[in-house]
Amino acid sequence: MKKSIYQSFFYTLIAALLFTGCSDEFFETSPAGDLTGSETFATTTNIDALMNGTLRYLMESSTSQDNPGYAAIMLSQEVMGDDAIARDGVYGFRDSYPFKDPYDNTTRRALFFWSFQYKVIDNCNGIIANVDKAQGTDDEKKYLKGQALALRAFVYLNMVRQYQFTYAKDKTAKAIPVYTEPTSPTTQPKSRSTVEQVYNQVIADLTQAETALVGFKRLVKNRLDLNVVKGLLARTYLTTEQWALAASKAKEARSGYAIMEPNQYSLGFNDVSNVEWIWGHPQRADQTLGGASFFAYIDVTPAAGYRSIMPDPYFRNLFSDQDVRKSLFQLVTTSTDPMYRWYKYKKFVDKADRSGNIVLMRSSEMALIEAESRARLSELPAAVTALNELRTKRGLTALGETELAAPALLEEILTERRRELWGEGFRLPDILRLQRSVVRKETTETFTAGGSNVLVKGHYIRVFPDNSAFVANSPYYLFSIPINEINTNPNL
């Protein structure tokens, strides 16, 4: 029987994924020996190493220079929106920006996005199925199962939003196959579950993880703990429009994670020790992907490098002058500079040794989920309170409780999501969730050089590949199931 991409089965990856040690030994790279099959799950120490390796695989697997693990999805989802631009002719995401990939199911990016996410799911399924039989304490087993459930939910939540339109549009639409058991060469490939079925699985996993992870104290922020689980529930309930649950879980998720002070915003977004990072991916200089990394594409400060992802000039106009974030924009007016006529946005700056950490969840996002949910519930004072927690930490004045009417307040919150979360992979999911269209306008901004007015660079792709206008709920916004999977899984 032909095997689907999903059925690569994690046993073929064990040697690459296992790392010795557990808990805080995130940076250990020596192989765990010849563990295979049942030995992999013999002890909680081994399973903890597999969990650690799976997280590393999620963030660091790369089939090509321009596919740096999950960061490639984050960056694709930014340049497929309207506030970020992939510079023309620069390597990395130039084909995602015009919606050619991952929409095109024959590209390596389409294949990579599908296959590596399902490999992570399969590893989680192996842990969930085997951890109870391992040698170790009951707490160790419970915490490992909780982490695997949470990570599986994280991937399914991402995939259901990548491969189908939003829950509110049509929860009965076919989305992706759901696997909850480890696969083998004889596993029958599954058909696509509905959007609702995938979300039900996500909520079931996170609910179980929420119970299992009570008392778990992580030593490194790459691990999914109770705050991360609550944050994932908040994201899930926001998308399924369960506003009260979204608001309450978002508030719980950011407990203990204060929003950073204004002077901290310009430090480069590169370290998990940041007070408001709830979840992030730490790296060490000798373990980064180098040119195939998140910062290689989004950090615009070095003299060399791709520097692929630029802000739209209209995005800069969303910030008021007193906003600390506006100071991070810099227009390049030196004609000999390769970035001439572009705005740089210096939010993400790699560490000097190229070991920049990748942010996956912050308390600012949770404050915005709470604010939006309260606004949609017509609880305007509570919405304003949550929004002001963020605004005042960005140098903005607090809004009065009655300063904005309900529709205007909601739009201000949604605009604040754009300002605050730029570059973190939220723009395209928000466009799909809100059932809105991408908006890309030709720039008219100029600056004076040599006595002449020079046009600032901005969006240069303003239609879909078929030359049609941007619209809401376009299939061009969706990731495609790769042709390899379609050819090998007759049940799709």
Present the secondary structure layout.
Elements (H helix, E strand, L loop, with lengths): L13 H4 L26 H17 L9 H10 L4 E3 L21 H23 L7 H25 L32 H18 L13 H14 L3 H11 L23 E5 L12 H5 L10 E3 L1 H4 L12 E3 L11 E3 L12 E5 H14 L3 H12 L14 H16 L5 H7 L12 E4 L2 E4 L27 H6 L4
Antiparallel strand pairs: 1-3, 2-6, 4-5, 7-8
Helix pairs in contact: 2-4, 2-5, 4-5, 5-6, 5-7, 6-7, 7-8, 7-11, 8-11, 11-12, 11-13
Task: Report how far apart the termini are.
Answer: 15 Å
Mean pLDDT: 92
Structural class: mainly alpha
CATH architecture: Alpha Horseshoe
The number of distinct β-strands equals 8
What's the helix count?
15
Apparent shape: globular
- Which stretches of 5+ consecutive residues score pLDDT under 50? 8-35
Task: Tell me about the largest β-sheet.
Answer: 2 strands, antiparallel
* Share in helix: 25-40%
Order of helices and strands: HHHEHHHHHEHEHEEEHHHHEEH
Any idea of the CATH topology?
A: Serine Threonine Protein Phosphatase 5, Tetratricopeptide repeat
Residue fraction in strands: 5-15%
CATH class bucket = Mainly Alpha
Count of distinct structural domains: 1
Strand order of the largest sheet: 1-3
Taking all Cα atoms into account, the compactness measure Rg is 22 Å
Structure description:
With 492 residues, the protein is mainly α. The chain has one domain: Serine Threonine Protein Phosphatase 5, Tetratricopeptide repeat (Alpha Horseshoe), CATH 1.25.40. It is 38% helix and 6% strand. It is built from 15 helices and eight strands. The chain has helices at 14-17, 44-60, 70-79, 108-130, 138-162, 195-212, 226-239, 243-253, 294-298, 313-316, 363-376, 380-391, 406-421, 427-433, 483-488; strands spanning 84-86, 277-281, 309-311, 329-331, 343-345, 358-362, 446-449, 452-455. The strands form four sheets. A two-stranded antiparallel ribbon has the order 1-3. A hairpin with a 2-residue loop joins strand 7 (446-449) and strand 8. Helix 5 runs parallel beside helix 7. Mean pLDDT is 92; it is low at 8-35.
